[in-house]
Amino acid sequence: AEQGDQLRGVTLDQARLVTVEAGRLHASHWGDDGLDDLPWVSGSKAAPSSPVGDDAVAMLWMGFKDRYAERLKPEWTEVGDWVSTRYSWLGQRHDGPRCLTHNDFRPDNMMFATAAGGYPVTVLDWQSFAYGAGPTDLAYFLAGALAGDVRRAHEDELLALYLDTLRANGVTGYGMADLRRHYGQGAYLLFLTAFFAAMVVTRTARGDDMFIQMLGSAADHMIEHGALGD
């Protein structure tokens, strides 16, 4: 198998494979409140509170904005100013069923089959898994892994594929209107991850390019889906 590449992105066929795997993952523990009893599942009621607070996130954004000022489009900066002051609220915004989520659902954390073999797609790096919003994983992936024009052209198809997969794996009572709303809200996590990680990991040239790509594609997704409203 071959590792995915955030900067290169994925093909549409690969995006379909990942969308199905996302649906299978999320259906496996859809609405499973038993996860709330597990302290090692982030976002559960039993989990320790996060050591990262609103003030720290706002400070990281200010540092990111200063460091990368020349590479940020004005509209991306506006999104960052909005997101960075709503960290806690954004994490609690989801109003639908929760499920087991990956929370760093992107090509660099995936292996794709090649002519030499391998599973169609294998997801790695489970250190951030949580009891959270499944459509956030989907938005995190599609916003960052597909070129904007490709995503926009095939978004309806991919959302329908995700919903069909949920239903085929036992999820009921969840419709397209709910999915569109939750998916539209979901790219905030990709945006947060981009500037947060950029400021706490060792800086590299590829890392700079990757974090800007993640942040910009997330901002574009949020703007397109009207996700910046209170």
What would your notes on this structure say?
The chain is built from 9 helices and 5 strands. A 3-stranded antiparallel β-sheet has the order 1-3-4, with helices on one face. Strands 2-5 form a two-stranded antiparallel sheet. By secondary structure, the chain is mainly alpha-helical. It has one domain: Aminoglycoside 3'-phosphotransferase, Chain: A, domain 2. The longest helix is centred in the C-terminal third of the chain and has 21 residues, at 148-168. A hairpin with a 2-residue loop joins strand 3 and strand 4. The radius of gyration is 17 Å and the shape is globular. The protein starts with a strand and ends in a 6-residue tail after the last helix. Helix 5 (134-145) crosses helix 9.
